[in-house]
Design brief:
It is a single chain. With about 375 residues, the protein is α+β, with helices and mostly antiparallel strands. The protein is about 50% helix and about 15% strand. The protein is built from twelve helices and ten strands. Strand 2 and strand 3 form a beta hairpin.
Length: about 375
């Protein structure tokens, strides 16, 4: 029989993180969100809770084998208190996972324990000015030289661009085209020739978005992650993990907003009755609660499919385009429920709205995700 139950250990972990989110993260959410600075204080707290090592090798401080469902649970629970801090396990899982299973020993030993301990953060540098979501069109070049590679190029819209110590940089061999010839390199972002440019947005400021430039940056042989010229496939496989995790991140923030709006509707009175007594108030909240629940299980379906080893690219894409929209709409409904107070900076609703809106774009827009889904659908149809 199909079961929607998490293990007892997972439930205990989720409750622990939810309590941490409510008591430790939520009270300072708006304060952190107002600064374009990465919060290492909160990040190290996550490390102490074991969040940053989920599914990573034990010898480096992790929990062991890949565990996408537990990581999704952690992300959702933490986002209830601070959607920006909650991005940490996704980013660490995305970068450290590639290092752990594809990196050379010297680089793994240099960076993985520090990432899991929360001492440093990492960036993944794919997007470029001329390519956007078209990874096959990237232009950053990696020329083979004695002892390593020399990289030249530019990346934009990079999470942790101004705060990361290490980055996974995707670059192609000179003269290569399309997906062929793209490799992944673990680069010390303090290396000579690396430039950083902040690009503050209307939200998600603590994620330190910005651009990276590379001018004759040398990366030693040990910096190659995976096989040379095969980086595209490796990147896509890991994005299939991050997309449902980001969906859950948005939904965690939206659930906090709906819960706050429901409590307010019971407490606040109008025309001698609680707001909750008016269907014009209670029914929209009921509708959004339904959408949140449906979107939540879509994300866990994707993570469960990944854990079982089955193909799940289309589920990951579904989990990225729809849940952020569901979450954004739910936060907007909660904001309206509070009236003018909801729009004010006294409440976290307006901040969550702006922070969650970033995920309408990050990691691929809805249009890109629908293209992935449609391609999978047409491929199955053609194979019949």
């Amino acid at each position: 029989m199909l079961s929607f139950a998490f293990s007892a250990e997972q439930e205990d972990f989720r409750r622990q993180l939810r309590k941490f989110a409510e008591t430790e993260l939520a009270p300072r959410y708006r304060e952190r969100a107002a600064r374009a600075e990465f919060s290492f204080e909160a990040h190290r707290q996550l490390a102490d809770l074991g969040v940053l090592g989920i599914g990573l090798p034990e010898e480096y401080g992790g929990s062991g084998e890949p565990d996408p469902i537990t990581l999704g649970l952690a992300t959702e629970a933490l986002a209830y208190g601070d959607v920006n801090v909650a991005a940490a396990p996704v980013q660490v899982g995305l970068v450290a996972g590639q290092l752990a299973w594809g990196g050379r020993q010297a680089v793994v030993q240099a960076w993985l324990p520090r990432l899991i301990a929360g001492e440093v953060v990492a960036a993944i540098a794919v997007t470029e000015p001329a390519g956007g979501s078209d990874v096959a069109a990237l232009r950053t070049e990696a020329k083979k030289v004695a002892g390593g590679w020399v990289l030249n190029g530019e990346k934009i819209a990079i999470t942790h661009a101004t705060s990361a110590a290490v980055g996974l940089v995707y670059a192609r061999e000179p003269g290569s085209r399309g997906h062929d010839g793209i490799s992944c390199f673990a680069m010390d972002l303090g290396s000579p020739g690396v430039g950083r440019t902040p690009t503050p947005g209307m939200g998600a400021l603590p994620l330190c978005w910005g651009g990276l430039s590379f001018e004759d940056v040398f990366v030693p042989d040990d910096g190659l992650v995976g096989a040379a010229g095969r980086g595209f496939a490796g990147a896509m496989r890991h994005f299939d993990f991050s997309r449902p995790a980001l969906g859950l991140l948005c939904l965690g923030a939206a659930q906090a907003s709906i819960d706050e709006a429901a409590a307010w509707a019971v407490e606040r009175e109008a025309f001698g009755r609680p707001l909750a007594a008016f269907q014009g108030v209670s029914f929209p909240l009921a509708e959004h609660a339904t959408y949140l629940e449906a979107a939540r299980w879509l994300c866990y379906r994707s993570l469960w499919t990944r854990e079982s080893g089955a193909q799940h690219t289309q589920y990951a894409a579904m989990s990225k385009w729809w849940p952020p929209i569901v979450a954004k709409d739910a936060i907007e409904a909660a904001l309206v429920t509070f009236g003018n107070l909801g729009y004010s900076i006294e409440l976290p609703l307006q901040q969550r709205y702006r922070d969650v809106a970033s995920y309408l774009i990050a990691d691929g827009t809805a249009g890109i995700q629908k293209r992935i889904i449609a391609t999978a659908m047409m491929g199955r149809t053609a194979a019949r």
